[in-house]
Structures are given as C-alpha cells and as structure tokens.
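Posting this for the archive.
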Amino acid sequence: MTPEMPRDAERRRAVAPVICYPNDSLPKPDLGLYRAARKSASKISETRVLPRDAACFTAPRGHFFRITSIDGPQVGDLNLWNAADLSERFYSGKTRALHGTHLGQGERMWSAFPHLRPMATIVEDTLGWYGIDRYGGSVHDVIGTRCDPYTGNLLSGGQYHQCCHSNLTRALAAHLGVSVDEAEPHVHDVLNVFMCTGFTRDTGQYFMKASPVRPGDYLEFFAEIDLLGALSACPGGDCSTEHSSDAAACFPLLVECFAPTEGSLEGWQEPARNGYDRSHGA
C-alpha cells in the first residue's frame, strides 16, 4: 500500500543537503613533489593480469604503481593491503564518504579502522576528462563491491568461479601460500578501476555501462605505505553488458611499479596511523 503523501511533502523534499564529511581539512597530498619524483623513477617490476583472472603485486612505500589497459577495453577490481599487516586494508566505504562515489586525481584510498590513513594516492588518470555523464555515470567507482559467486548463486543458482571475488581469493591464496578458505576473509570491497557506473535516477539501482577505457589508458598511484595489491581483470570485460560472463570480450591488464631516485622525495613521510586513542568512552 502506498503511504498517503503529507501536505508538506514538497517542503520536506526541498530541504538543502549537507555534506556529511567536509574534506577541506584532510591532509593534502603534495602532487607536485610526487610528479617531480616520478619523472626520474625507474621501472622495477611488472605484473600481467590475465583475462578473467587476478594477480598479486607489491609496491613499496614511496614507489609508484600504474594500472594500464592493454590490447582492449577492460576494467579491473583492485584490493590493497598493508604488506606487513593484512588487517590494514582498503576501506571503500570511508573512502567514498570522504571523496565521493568515484575517485580521481589527487584523491586517496584510505585504510580500515583502526588505522584510517592514506594507503595510495592517485597521481595520474588518463580518464580524468570523462567527468559525470548524462546518466550520472563516472569512472573508478567505490560503490560496487565486486562481482562474486554468492550473489550470482542467489540470483541465478549458478556456480561461476571466474568472478572478481573468486579471482582475488585465488590470487591472494597463491601469493601467501595458504588455502582459499584462509585467504577469502581478507578479500574486500574494491576500487573498480576504469569501470563506468552510477545509480539510476528513478529506482536508485547500481548500474554499469561500457567503460570509456582504451588501450594505453592508465591510472597511476603513489604508494603511501608498503602495499600488497591484487587486481582482477573482470570477466565482464568493459562491463557493457554483464559482469560475470564467459562470453564478454576480455583483455589483460598491466601493473607496473616504479622506484624513485634517492632524494627525490625529500620531506615526504609515511602517513601516521589515525590518532584516535581507541578508548571508546569505556
């Protein structure tokens, strides 16, 4: 039964919004310093992520890592952990609250409680021109959780193992030398690299559309702490039709890591863990 509309409905709807977390006081990354250091940085490693699969990589603090689309349009699901402590991992919800639904140049991936500090800063984004389209879509979202076999089973009853959650689980298990049962709890909500998404205006549903990414496009980060990363090349390809599919055209992704020259990051310090005393008023 549809509830009766109150007489003051329009007045209630007309109330102006208030930003929950004004971010003017957030510590600002020194993009000028990062970019200057990047110019003389040298490549030390690369990881090729195969279609419908995932791979792990490491990026030491003070280094740069770049995710590049190669061969064809492809989106990726990114997990990040503190390389020495997997309990410190990317917190998509708080990152979304601080920066918005989609990330861009100068914005950061923040870690989970109780750490809550920058893990990585976006330094360059070749899709920064895209903005927000007429459907409300944009790129590099922190609203989608990752395609997974549990939701797939719930909706269709199938058993699909090449989804991003399973890909990330297998990659992390292989990297750590543990079982998938041990690895799975560490897999978390992602940064959807290159994916174009939003919410429908009428029903508020999460949508995806063909990514504007093309071979050669990249997203580059500065590692604020020692990082272990895992990246899945989504089985949806450019996510123009579906995201858990053996039919979609899928392509590899490339992750490269670059080391700065000595002295090029003078003055930079690893971000401290959050200063809250954790007493919780007890």
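Residues 164-176 form the longest helix (13 residues). The helical segments are 9-13, 31-39, 92-99, 149-156, 164-176, 180-183.
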